[in-house]
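worker-03 picked up job from queue 'complexes'. Input manifest follows; four sequence lines, order preserved.
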Amino acid sequence: MSNQFKKEYIVVAQNASGRNMNVPLYRFIGEKPGPKVYIQSSIHGAEVQGNVVIYHLIQRLKQQPICGEVILVPNCNPVGTNIKAGEYTLGRFDPVNGTNWNRGYFYDESLIQEFAQSVQDDESVPQIKQRFRQQIKDILAEKLQESWGIGLAQRLNLKLQQLAFDADFVLDLHNGPVSTRHIYVPEYAQASATMFNIPHVILIPNKFAGALDEATFCPWWTLQTLLSDKRQKAVEFGVEAFTLEMGSQEVISFTDGEYDANSILSYLNAKGCLIESDIYPQTMRRVATYLKNYKVLYTQQGGMVEYLAKPGEMIKQGQPLAKLLNVDELDTPNATELILAQCDLIPILHFPSASILSGTQLYKCFTHYFEL
Amino acid sequence: MSNQFKKEYIVVAQNASGRNMNVPLYRFIGEKPGPKVYIQSSIHGAEVQGNVVIYHLIQRLKQQPICGEVILVPNCNPVGTNIKAGEYTLGRFDPVNGTNWNRGYFYDESLIQEFAQSVQDDESVPQIKQRFRQQIKDILAEKLQESWGIGLAQRLNLKLQQLAFDADFVLDLHNGPVSTRHIYVPEYAQASATMFNIPHVILIPNKFAGALDEATFCPWWTLQTLLSDKRQKAVEFGVEAFTLEMGSQEVISFTDGEYDANSILSYLNAKGCLIESDIYPQTMRRVATYLKNYKVLYTQQGGMVEYLAKPGEMIKQGQPLAKLLNVDELDTPNATELILAQCDLIPILHFPSASILSGTQLYKCFTHYFEL
Amino acid sequence: MSNQFKKEYIVVAQNASGRNMNVPLYRFIGEKPGPKVYIQSSIHGAEVQGNVVIYHLIQRLKQQPICGEVILVPNCNPVGTNIKAGEYTLGRFDPVNGTNWNRGYFYDESLIQEFAQSVQDDESVPQIKQRFRQQIKDILAEKLQESWGIGLAQRLNLKLQQLAFDADFVLDLHNGPVSTRHIYVPEYAQASATMFNIPHVILIPNKFAGALDEATFCPWWTLQTLLSDKRQKAVEFGVEAFTLEMGSQEVISFTDGEYDANSILSYLNAKGCLIESDIYPQTMRRVATYLKNYKVLYTQQGGMVEYLAKPGEMIKQGQPLAKLLNVDELDTPNATELILAQCDLIPILHFPSASILSGTQLYKCFTHYFEL
Amino acid sequence: MSNQFKKEYIVVAQNASGRNMNVPLYRFIGEKPGPKVYIQSSIHGAEVQGNVVIYHLIQRLKQQPICGEVILVPNCNPVGTNIKAGEYTLGRFDPVNGTNWNRGYFYDESLIQEFAQSVQDDESVPQIKQRFRQQIKDILAEKLQESWGIGLAQRLNLKLQQLAFDADFVLDLHNGPVSTRHIYVPEYAQASATMFNIPHVILIPNKFAGALDEATFCPWWTLQTLLSDKRQKAVEFGVEAFTLEMGSQEVISFTDGEYDANSILSYLNAKGCLIESDIYPQTMRRVATYLKNYKVLYTQQGGMVEYLAKPGEMIKQGQPLAKLLNVDELDTPNATELILAQCDLIPILHFPSASILSGTQLYKCFTHYFEL
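worker-03 finished. Artifact:
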């Protein structure tokens, strides 16, 4: 028994040379029906480790029978991947207008409320699911045809969302600047957090802030909440979506990619996507916090900084996070300054450059964290 | 009788050399009390004509007695002004993270609703105004002291908002890419549109979208709407705020700056800020549209483009706006393509480069426009 | 009688998505033998008018019989064309390392001297020409195969030079920042300057400074000088190469492109490339200067600038070129400063942004100019 | 006995806000006369470790008596330090025109030859040294006064060169992209290579290629060679200049900075600048190669790359340096490709991003290296 395999290209933009820019799409179709999985990587151009993860997933899925379908879209932003500014990749936003490449997905809460009202009492969960999915996909198709056109990032995002909204399990592979591995998990899917081999978990509420994971799970979570209320019993669609941060941007590691691929396969196995697989999540310490307790530490000063606290380390209140150098004060006691932890915390990522202006996101930290 | 004059500098950031970055503040104080005016320019670094306008305003206010106070802050973004990317100024957003320099102002609708409820029936309009102003300013001060810090653009914005929220009339001087002069006017202040010498007017609703004019007028408009409802009679605070687009970015003209300064003085005179001035708005054709009819035309294609329709021209449906060249098709009939107007419109601005990707904001256009 | 037409693509690079980047090549081959012509445009990505010129040339060459061959390579730098930094195109240099896209061509003077010594007394000019051409082309091919690899810009340049060095007449189409039309002409080919319809001519010496025109004519000029000395009579290869600056960067004009195409066809006709054509250069005023008198005016100050002198205007000593605004001095007599012409001059181009640091190339000017 | 200490600021540019940009200068003057030392850091804005080194040197020189004078200029490029392009610092070149910030120093070989001819037979070495120094400094001063102005990078460079050319020992502190510590040593000063604690040494010839070390030592080396010839005996000026590469750009480490400061103090002690110091170079393995054998490996392909060989490792011919991923081929045997060492080598630095275009400087490597 083996999977069917297809490879396609989707045109998502055209460059100034008048040439199409496309993204590769790798599709595995199992012999038996089952859930649909959608995995993309590198929507932010400098966040490239996910491409290695997808490479390993493809090698594995050539051997591993699945039920349902797995779609893999590596390097899903051909514009962002190819914008260099100096030696690094300026991949987080459109250099023309600053638009974050991960903020143009469609979401409209009022529309979900209307849809919830349209649901008949006797409509089954699969029927509702299929009808809702179709409605969103119709809107996406319509938006892509808008007669005045749409922006570059938005077109890219909607094209990808067309694929993602068709899926039951959506994984968006990212990287932090200098970062330990972490994952964004919707609060209602907290149980799935331990199906991955990822040590740091951010539990996020049902609030759309623009990213693909939210654009995917918020509609379903909102809808199931409304319908559960209406029907006075739990309605569940079983759709989940996550943003996985696979370490640091601007580097790839084939060895780490294999670990990451295993982590994802563990999740897919737990969700019934794999046939006769013995891949299970590792026993490991997993620490979580709620999004509101995932704090950004901004600098008050400009200068040059040594990052003393490493991503993933447990830091006690009062311990130093960073040491700042001020080149105008090298002969005075103000030459250096320690930046201390205001409370117990785990730095998850830090800024990737030693040179900072005031108001720089120095660290993002878990506070009030707990074990899962 | 003459005005008092003061010059100060406000620190808004610190750079990687550890040095303060500040903005100049020019303040004229009339002998008699009167309204407060706040005018800033170049929050977007490449939009520099406003600096020339403020130069002319300063020359005029040295001679022209005022009542109340006029604060002028040219070049209000010392970071954005000084970021070159190639020969041009990358001034619309923070190059680190893509944050638009004009989107970090504070606004919280729920807070206004709470405040409205706190208003006593016998509280006078000046009392309410003073108390509300103080409350917002307290919040701004508090946000600037946030123990985890705040972002660079947000700090800059809040520092400027501290000045702006103290004023009755706020003018934020911008430029479009390649652009004719136009102004954003809150719908409730439509009558003021004809007090400026600006031919194109966009009427905007009471909806905060991040800019300084909205951060200024939305709180007052919301509050006066709530209180008018409550008191069953019109409550008016007389606060107005506008974004003025003084032509194209990346160019300055001293002659045009004098015209623009006159336009602003006409408005200030109409609002009672000037003493014994005979500056009145010009008799001229002014065309307006509602924000929802101010349409962006995005390109479907990438290529090289000649902008045939000039900003300010009236274009009929079906007339050409632009002509596109595709370098891969120079020998075929697809070498060039005309982009036509979908309806009667006035292009207000267009993209400043001939080289475009698909999804570029080619033109912004007035549709369904009318004369004021 | 008509020309044969072919279209090809040449791979010049591969991007981070692992995809080939290629340039289109349009080739017209006449029924009769004759000189070879090579024309490229947009080696600097923001300099796009040449693409329109090539578009018009292609339309004309469909009708106009030629002898020999004309190769047209529009948009010859697919990397540079597609790098946006803000709304503009960062096309002059590789964003990774600052390498000018027009400085990687091959030139080696000692090699020409060696070749000159290898020439037999009885070797005919066509024989010498063919042998020298082959030798350079062999070196180019070898360099492209260098086992340690070569840089991105250099590979692009050598690939184009392979085409150019095969030609007798080479035209490299550029634009200035904000610029009037001008042309770089090797001193020995001064007679050809009046075959184009270009009002401003820079006469350049036999010194390689990195550009394609120099990489083309310097070897031939050097060789014919050496051989003329050796043989005690004029040896001429008839090879000419020019850089044509077709107005300002970042804009295209189809109307101007037709004028520019006519200008080039006049030259080609004068050189015997066209069959039975009646295209001749216009009678017009042409002003020239030597390269050493083509002066760059750098600013001593930073600030915002209005460009008072327009490209192409004749400016007398002491007349104002530009007016500078200093935002820190708006209340003092130092608010503005005039920058004056140090001698009689013609500004040919100026910087395209109003915001300048000290040390900016404000203007490039003809001094000690004369009529041709 | 203790040193005198002074702190100054030198204006090197003015920004678009019209404000001066300056560099700090820390000066220690010993009680006794002795050699002059000039140390600068961060001429390339992202190469910041040298600032930490200078911080440590200042702490040490507060205690350690010197003879002569030590001038320290950290963060010597206030423009380059403050240009962000994305999260990283675009510090190697002027973003306006691509000019490398370390290539605008003055050097003119013909002038040195003229000077050599002017030297009288009885002129003493100190006299020659003083007169030559003065002549170069006069030219630098003149160039800075050029009536048509000079470019931003050139002004910065000449201002720094005025300080450097006055010194006997010049150290220019840099960083590589991802790099091990290495040093550029002029061939004639090879003996000094072992006075530093730096494991990798590049021996460079007497050829000016634009950098500060060359601008400093080439004139003296050329002059002493000419005079030694003339006088038929060794003339030595004792001037040395080095570029020190203190590890990787975009990071600082206070601990490593202390090591680097020690390394520099060892050299200064060996050169007689320190009084009663017991700082001596470490016993360590030092490997050197000639500049011609310091090879750049360029990629032939674009894609994503894992850097397998670490800077400083000894790699044998045929061993893998890097592994490339091609996202369009993830299902085929072409998904990955190994890049192998063509000969025995030591990678000294590699490109800092995983995303590369073809023609990227992947590695710089020592070949044909030997122990010192």
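worker-03 released lock.
The mean pLDDT of chain D is 97.
Residues 124 and 235 of chain D are 10 Å apart (CA to CA).
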